[in-house]
Amino acid sequence: MLKLRLSMAGTLAVIIGASTLFFTVILSLIGTFSLLNMAFFVVAFNILQWLIAPYLIDAMYRVREVSEPEEPKLHGMIRRLSSRLGLKMPKVMLANIPIPNAFAYGSPIAGSRVAVTTGLLKELEDEEVEAVIGHELGHVKHRDVQIMMFASVLPAIFYFLGYSLMLSSWYGGRRRENESGLAAVIGLASMVAYWILTLFVLGLSRLREYYADRTSALTVDDGARKLSEALAKIVASTGRYKRYRRDSGGVNSFKALFISDPDKATGDTLELAHARAYLTDQGLVQEVLSREPSTLDKILEVFSTHPNIVKRLRTLQKL
Predict the structure, then answer these.
(1) pLDDT digits (tens, 9 = 90+) for 91-137
(2) What b/e readout covers 24-59, taking b as 16+ CB neighbours within 10 angstroms?
(3) What is the rounded distance in angstroms from the CA atom of residue 306 to the CA atom of residue 267?
(4) Catalytic annotation on 229?
(5) Euclidean distance between CA atoms 21 and 190, whole angstroms
(6) Angle CA(27)–CA(165)–CA(151) in degrees, nearest 5?
(7) β-sheet with 111-117: strand ranges across
(8) 32-42: per-residue pLDDT in tens?
(9) What is the DSSP code string of the chain?
(10) Where are the domains of the chain?
(11) pLDDT digits (tens, 9 = 90+) for 178-225
(12) 28-37, 57-66, 194-203, 227-236 — which is least confidently predicted?
C-alpha cells in the first residue's frame, strides 16, 4: 500500500515538476502575459467541463438514476460498501449499454455517481458485480476524478499553446519571418511537452486503477477472487461488441472512467471469448494468468489508461 501511494505521489510530482520547468522556459521566450492568458483559458475550460461532465456522460451513455424498488440488489451493494468505506452513498445510475462495464463520476454540482451498464448486470454474477462496485467506490474515496482532472489540465495547456503558436507561425506572413520561426520552435517544443506529460498522466491513471482494485479486494469479502473473475469476464465479453464500439464513438470518449478499457478488449480476447464457453470462472482467470504479455502488449500499455489485464490479475492474486 505504501509503495503504491509513493508511486502515485511520485508520478504526480513529476507531472507538476516537469510542467513548472516547461512553463519557466516558455515564459522566458514569449513573455508572461500571453502564456498566463492561455493557461487561464485552459484551466477555466477544464473546470467548466468537469462541472458539466456528468450531464454530458448521462446523455452520451444513456444513463439514468434508478430507484431502490427498480434495482434493490444494486442499491444494497452500494449502500453496504459505501458504509464500509465511510462514504456518503452516491447516486445509483444505470447505463443502457450492452458492453459490460462500470464507472464512477461526478462533480460538486452533480454529486458523486456510480453507474453500471445493463451489459454488466447481464454478464456478471451478483458477487462479481459487488466487486466491480467496490472498485468504483475506491475511485470515489480516493477522489480520482478530481486528481485526474488536475493532472490532465497541465498537458492540455501545452497542447493549446503549441497548437496556437504553430498556427500563428504558418500564417504569420513574410514580414515576421523571425518571429514566426521562433513561434514554430516554441510551438513544437510545447507539443513535445504535451506528449511527455500525457505519458505521465496515463501512468498515473494506471496506478489509480491498481489502487482502486486493491480497495475492492480489501473491502469486499473475498474481493480479490471476485474482482479477478469479474475482470476476466468483462474482457472476454467485451470483445463480442466490437461493432457496437466502432459505431458508438461516445463509448470511447470517456473510456478512462471505465473499470476496463473497451479498446483493448479486441487484443485481450483473441482466445478468451472461445475459452469462456468451456471454462469455469476460475478457469477463465487462470487462462489469463497463464499468458505472458508480449513486447507489443507492454508498449501498448504505456499509451493506455488501464493496466495490462494479465499484470492486473497477477497483482490481485498477490492480495
Answers:
(1) 999 999 888 999 999 889 989 999 999 999 999 999 999 999 999 99
(2) eebeeebeeeebeebbeebeeebeeebeebbeebbe
(3) 14
(4) no
(5) 12
(6) 65
(7) 63-65, 91-95, 111-117, 102-107
(8) 545 566 667 66
(9) -HHHHHHHHHHHHHHHHHHHHHHHHHHHHH-HHHHHHHHHHHHHHHHHHHHHHHHHHHHHTTEEE--TTT-HHHHHHHHHHHHHHT-PPPEEEEE--SS--EEEEEETTTEEEEEEEHHHHHHS-HHHHHHHHHHHHHHHHTTHHHHHHHHHHHHHHHHHHHHHHHHHHHTS-GGGHHHHHHHHHHHHHHHHHHHHHHHHHHHHHHHHHHHHHHHHHHHSTTHHHHHHHHHHHHHHHHGGGHHHHHH-THHHHTGGGBSS-GGGHHHHTTTHHHHTTT--HHHHHHHHHT----HHHHHHHHT-SS--HHHHHHHHHH-
(10) 2-318
(11) 556 777 787 788 888 888 888 988 999 999 999 999 999 999 999 999
(12) 28-37
pLDDT digits (tens, 9 = 90+) for 10-37: 554 555 555 555 555 555 555 554 556 6
Report the distance separating Cα 101 and Cα 284, nearest Å: 18
Q: Which amino acid is at 9?
A: A
CA distance 72 to 76: 6
114 phi and psi angles, rounded to 5 deg: -125, 125
Q: Which of 127, 136, 209, 301 is catalytic?
A: 136
Identify whether the C-beta of residue 230 lies closer than 8 Å to the C-beta of residue 128: yes
